[in-house]
Design brief:
elongated; SH3 type barrels; about 230 residues; 7 strands; alpha+beta; 9 helices; about 45% helix; 2 domains
Length: about 230
C-alpha cells in the first residue's frame, strides 16, 4: 500500500482538528507527538466513514478515474473521501460549537482564570477594570481577545469608557470619561493590552463606586489621551 494511502487520511485528521472550534484552540498548546497521534486517530475514523460510504454507494468515487494520472497515485477513493469530509464537516460542527464555548471549555480545563473571566464578560457584557502597575486604570469593555499558542499570555482589545488611577492606598480616582466620543472614535480609543502587563483585571460595578467627584467628560473636539 503506498505511503499516500496513510498520509492523506492523517492530513485529513489534522485539518479537521485545525478547522473545528472543538479542538483548534487546544491543538495549539499540545506537543507535536500528541498532535500527530490525534490527527492519525481522527483520520482513521474519517477513512472508515468514507470507506463505508463508498461501499453503500459504489459510484461515489467514480469521478476520480476521470482525473488525468490519478491511477498512478494509487490512492483509494476512501482516502480522498476522508479529505473531503475534513473540509466539509467543520461547517456544521462550528455552527453548533461556537468559538467562545470552545475557549471557555479550554480555560476551564487548563484552570486559566484570566481567560475564564474574559469569556464570562463576553457572555454578560460586564464592565472591566484593567489596572497597570503604574496605577493607571481603565474601565471599559473587552471586544476581542486572543491567547498565545503556548498559552503563556492573553491579549485583549479594550474600548475604554472611563480612565483614572489608583492612589497609594489603592483608592480609585476616575479623571476622564470617553462616553461622548466612544461611538464615533472607538477605533482610536481601543487599547491592545497584554494581560501579563497588568496588575489586575476584574469586573467593575458602577453602582458600587462612590462618586465623590465626577470624571471630566471628553468631547468630540478633544484628542483622547491614552497613556
Amino acid at each position: 500500500m503506498p505511503a499516500l494511502e496513510f498520509f492523506v487520511p492523517a492530513l485529513a485528521g489534522y485539518l479537521l482538528l485545525r478547522l473545528t472550534n472543538i479542538r483548534k484552540f487546544g491543538l495549539r498548546r499540545e506537543s507535536g507527538y500528541h498532535v500527530v497521534f490525534r490527527a492519525t486517530l481522527v483520520g482513521l475514523a474519517l477513512y472508515l466513514v468514507a470507506a463505508v460510504a463508498g461501499q453503500l454507494c459504489p459510484s461515489l468515487y467514480s469521478w476520480l478515474d476521470l482525473l488525468p494520472g490519478w491511477s498512478a497515485l494509487q490512492v483509494s477513493g476512501a482516502a480522498v473521501g476522508s479529505l473531503l469530509l475534513a473540509a466539509l464537516a467543520p461547517v456544521p460542527l462550528n455552527l453548533w460549537y461556537k468559538p467562545l464555548r470552545a475557549r471557555r471549555q479550554l480555560a476551564d480545563k487548563k484552570g486559566d482564570l484570566v481567560d475564564q473571566l474574559i469569556c464570562d464578560t463576553f457572555d454578560d457584557g460586564s464592565l472591566i477594570e484593567v489596572a497597570f502597575p503604574s496605577g493607571k486604570t481603565y474601565l471599559g469593555f473587552i471586544i476581542k481577545s486572543s491567547t498565545a499558542d503556548d498559552g503563556s499570555d492573553t491579549g485583549i482589545l479594550l474600548v475604554p469608557l472611563l480612565s483614572g488611577y489608583r492612589d497609594s492606598d489603592q483608592h480609585l480616582c476616575l479623571t476622564t470619561s470617553y462616553g461622548r466620543v466612544v461611538n464615533e472614535r472607538w477605533q482610536r480609543l481601543a487599547l491592545a493590552i497584554r494581560c501579563s502587563e497588568l496588575k489586575w483585571l476584574r469586573r467593575f460595578d458602577m453602582d458600587l463606586y462612590p462618586w465623590t467627584e465626577p470624571p471630566r467628560i471628553l468631547t468630540v473636539g478633544e484628542a483622547p489621551e491614552l497613556d
